[in-house]
Write a structure and sequence with these properties.
single chain; 441 residues; alpha/beta; Aspartate Aminotransferase, domain 2; 7-stranded mixed sheet; 3-stranded antiparallel sheet; 12 strands; 11% strand; binds pyridoxal-5'-phosphate
Length: 441
């Protein structure tokens, strides 16, 4: 008798056409009209639409100041500068994240000390953060990783105790809640990527949010020369008005700002539909051996919001030791495309260990410190263990249960008949994940 599994010649679990199930970003005539208006006015490098978008964003988020950027990377670097991260300083960041949560510290003369993550949330672990605080720690970078809100109560307690500012990288969690309060509203400053692959997709852009006038003005001074003008109130900055202190030009493209105003208006309803669809997918899989969801307990009033790049947690011990690689291949063969890994831990990359970026004559990681902060393999055990157990899951944009049922069945079917896959299992490659992850077409 032939196998039930598609990988071994059986029929696929997913037979329906996806149609718009995964379409992202959702672009309508509204976005097009907003962009055309900018183009026809020749206002691509102007500021009127960007300032209106900033006002919308600050209101939606519930923060005093919003500053638009050309990218999330630039917004995060400016958030670091806003917190006075400088030469010889250290920031504490998770290693399990996209590089732009941390690497910009080098350009400021600072270095990075990585803290481990919690197994449940995959977010930075407050206990390990506290262990890694020194008198040089100038900021703690918190990433609400792939949508799961970090434990802000514990993190803020440690940060406040040691008087270190928190920067929130909200690039994966726009609109998410932690115990009923918006993520991005806990730290001294928050930054968001708004590039087209994110759950609030507007083109190429970033946003910085803060209630602190000095942080806001330092971010302006660093890379927004045309706004570094007489409106600046911070005394020590006024002397330098006119030229960008960082030597950077970071303003948002107004075609992105125009799309942003439309996308932000539509975001609450789109986010809700995604959240319902993704929770339904995990509800279907609850209790399946080998499968664990990555989402906060519903009772906590904490949410995954737009579910950017959501992951599943794999437990091979419950499936006879079936490798993650073969599991993903089998589920994909059923018509539910998933792949192993997440962001590869940054501390293991040569850039964080040997590369001399700026010609200091030694690795940049230790260029401006008198202690070696490099972290060898094995130094972040939870991060290094969990990266081998994570895989992508489908990112449903529409809450269509008949379709989602088929994708959940693809996973369940592979778990049910996993024994048939053990014979030809060649195991996992040593290094799962990808430095360039996640790619966006
Ligand atoms: C995408 C991303 C960024 C960088 O944003 P860009 O807009 O691509 O520059 C920063 N941090 C995280 C966690 C991201 O996923």
């Amino acid at each position: 008798m032939s196998s039930k599994l598609a990988l071994l010649g059986g029929p696929k679990a997913v037979t329906s056409e996806p149609n718009d199930l995964f379409t992202w970003p959702i672009i309508t005539a509204e976005d097009e009209a907003a962009v055309l208006d900018v183009l026809r006015r020749g206002a691509m490098s102007g500021m009127d639409v960007t300032k209106a978008f900033e006002a919308d964003y600050a209101k939606w988020q519930g923060r005093m100041y919003a500053l638009g950027f050309s990218s999330g990377t630039a917004a995060l670097q400016s958030a670091m500068y806003g917190c006075k991260v400088g030469v010889g300083d250290e920031i504490i960041a998770p290693s399990l994240t996209y590089w732009a949560s941390a690497l910009q510290a080098f350009s400021l003369g600072a270095t990075i000390v990585f803290a481990d993550v919690e197994e449940e949330s995959l977010d930075i672990d407050a206990t390990d953060v506290e262990r890694k605080i020194t008198d040089r720690t100038k900021a703690i970078m918190v990433v609400h990783y792939v949508g799961y809100p970090a434990d802000m109560d514990a993190i803020m307690k440690v940060a406040d105790k040691h008087n270190v500012p928190v920067i929130e990288d909200v690039s994966h969690a726009h609109g998410g809640l932690y115990k009923g309060k918006r993520v991005g509203n806990f730290g001294k400053v928050a930054a968001f990527s708004l590039m087209s692959g994110k759950s609030l997709p507007i083109g190429e852009a970033g946003m910085l949010l803060t209630d602190d006038r000095e942080v806001y003005e330092r971010a302006i001074a660093f890379g927004h020369y045309s706004r570094f003008n007489e409106e600046i109130e911070t005394d020590y900055l006024r002397e330098y008005i006119g030229l960008p202190l960082g030597g950077y030009k970071y303003r948002m493209h107004q075609m992105s700002a125009a799309v942003g105003r439309v996308q932000l208006r539509r975001y609450p309803e789109r986010m809700k539909e995604i959240d319902d669809a993704m929770n339904y997918f995990w509800d279907c899989l609850e209790g399946t051996p080998g499968i664990r969801s990555h989402r906060p307990p519903k009772s906590e009033n904490s949410t995954m919001a737009g579910w950017y790049a959501a992951r599943g947690k794999y437990v091979p011990e419950e499936l006879g030791g079936l490798s993650l690689t073969r599991f993903c291949r089998a589920v994909s063969a059923e018509g539910c495309g998933i792949s192993p890994g997440a962001n590869k831990p940054l501390h293991l990359h040569p850039l964080l260990n040997t590369c001399d970026v700026y010609g200091h004559g030694k690795p940049t990681r230790i260029a401006n410190t008198d202690r070696d902060v490099r972290q060898p393999p094995g130094s972040l055990p939870v991060t290094e263990r969990m990266i081998k157990r994570l895989y992508s899951i489908p990112w449903f944009k529409k809450n269509r249960h008949e379709a989602i049922d088929e994708y959940a069945e693809a996973v369940k079917k592979v778990c049910r008949y996993h024994a048939e896959l053990l014979a030809d299992d060649r195991g996992d490659p040593e290094d799962v994940g990808n430095w360039h992850f996640f790619q966006h077409t």
